[in-house]
Amino acid sequence: MMTPTSASTPEAQGRVELELFPAPGPSSPIHPFGWIVGIGDELRELYRYRGVLQDMVVQELRVRYQRSVLGFVWTLVNPILMMTTLTLVFSQLFQVSAKNYAVYLFSGMVPWALLSGILNESAVCFITNEGLIRRIYLPKLIFPLARVLINLVTFLLSMSALFLLMKLLGVAFSWSVLLLPIPVLLFSLFALGLALTVSIANTFFRDVGHLVSVFLQAWYFFTPIIYEVRLIPQEHRWRFWLNPAYPFIQMFQDLIHKGQVPPPVVMLAGFGLALVSLGIGYGVFKRCEDHLVFRL
């Protein structure tokens, strides 16, 4: 007959159960660049779900134009019609003196439409996808990122309409247009940072979505798109630097309308604003990401 071992006593059993869980060791030191590791993990996860992101973008673009006769041609026709209307109004009634005013107007309108579309659609991107978010796991970052990519595709098509317009008007192309990918990238990152902030804010406080369009309209008129900066008195021009969209719009206008490289201070300002916007937006997003589903 086996004699009971010490492990059969209640005291010993308690000790065995406690040994099933390892004793807590010393806490790992926080790496000073741990946020870089976190961003790397985020990018790897987005790469894993790149197929889902691609399907979301393609499906949205198809649905947007599937019942229209012209389809994707509207991405070319719509900005041209809007530009023609504004050109007639401002060049005739207000005697705008800008050379090739249509090109000047279009070079600011097209990037502004990119920013406006991203912010308006990102404000409701989590709310409209509530059912999908509750059913399956997807990186939450996919939803605002998809809105950026969708509007970026529309932006690129609108830019092709701008180049066609320049050809019809006989405006010579400058080598400076080869630098357009720089402001496009910086402006997209700037818009993505704002989109992350707006998407979170409107999910937690639904009033934000109603304020976005009003804020964008006021912001539009504060940005020199339909008028030139030189028409503003010299003592008031410094106020444009309070507008975070001003350096980006000026980069597009310099490269397309003036055919020259933007001043270094404008390029540096755009680079800095893009980093600040993306950093703040990503920080707000990660802080609230885990509580997002409970607010839907």
Principal-axis shape = globular
- Decide which structural class fits the backbone: mainly alpha
**Structure annotation, total helices:** 12
Distance between the termini: 65 Å
Q: Would you report the number of β strands?
A: 0
Helix and strand pattern: HHHHHHHHHHHH
**How many strands, which pairing sense, and closed or not: the largest β-sheet?**
none
Query: What share of residues are in beta strands?
Result: under 5%
> Compute the gyration radius: what is it?
26 Å
**Spans of 5+ residues with little confidence (pLDDT < 50)?**
1-35
Q: What is the residue-mean pLDDT, rounded to a whole number? A: 81
Helix content: 55-70%
Can you offer a commentary on this structure?
The chain is mainly α. It has helices spanning 10-19, 34-48, 50-65, 74-93, 101-122, 125-128, 130-135, 142-169, 181-204, 207-222, 246-258, 264-288. Helix content is 67%, strand content 0%. 28% of the residues are buried. Mean pLDDT is 81; it is low at 1-35.
